[in-house]
Amino acid sequence: MGNLYLIVTFPPTGGREITIFSLYTVINIIYNTSMNDRQKKHRDDIRLKILNSATKLFEEKGIEFVTMRKIAAEIKYTPTTIYLYYKNKEELLYEIANKKIDILTEELRRISNDNNKTFLVSLIRTYFNFFVKNKKYFYLYSDITTGRLRVDDLKRNSLVNAPLYSFGRVFDSIVMQGVKNEDYTDSLYLLWSFMNGIVEIELNPAMEEMVDIDKITNRFAEFIINSYIVI
């Protein structure tokens, strides 16, 4: 039997340009595309399985128990297989943190208020409560953002900046009201440092009774807002 061909005309309504494909070629293209999709899904599934296992170890036992060997044993793979998907423990820990920060970012995104001070205090309290509730994640987040855990600079910066986008909305509101129009990047990082500081205080048993978190949060919010008022 001779070769079968598929004839396709462009444009579809008819025209002079005619492309002739071998039917074998068409079937091969469809097959390879399907295979690539299945292989990608298989790789994605394994990567997610590794990440879920690492997250479980981290949440149950802490950062020191997250090792490639322990993860491999948990999901019945060889350590070599784990390294095919994550180049080291730090990359895995970054993914664990990033997944959790996505949840925090979404919580912050849903907050809004027409009063700038109330808006800012609500954001700070949400950030504070999230990390007090998720103590292990706060220390992991701190280890990555302060450089104690070595990850790519772009990834580290993305962890710092992701939750701050919502705080930027407060400053955008101030600028839109014509109060003060200037770059507020420094204020955002000052705010970020303050928030991490009060979480650290709350998580320290020796200090938690010494500081009124609500009081200093309100005062700091006033300080931030007032610093943008033109006198």
Automatic annotation (TrEMBL):
Listed GO MF terms: DNA binding
Q: Which residues cross the membrane?
A: none
Q: Which keywords belong to this entry?
A: Coiled coil, DNA-binding
| Coiled coil (residue ranges) | 87-114
Keyword Zinc among record annotations = no
Q: Which residues bind DNA?
A: 67-86
Keyword Nucleotide-binding (UniProt): no
Could you tell me which Pfam families the record lists for this protein? TetR_N
Q: Where is the HTH tetR-type domain?
A: 44-104
Q: Which InterPro entries match?
A: Homeodomain-like_sf, HTH-type_Tx_Regulator, HTH_TetR, Tet_transcr_reg_TetR-rel_C_sf
Name this protein carries in UniProt: HTH tetR-type domain-containing protein
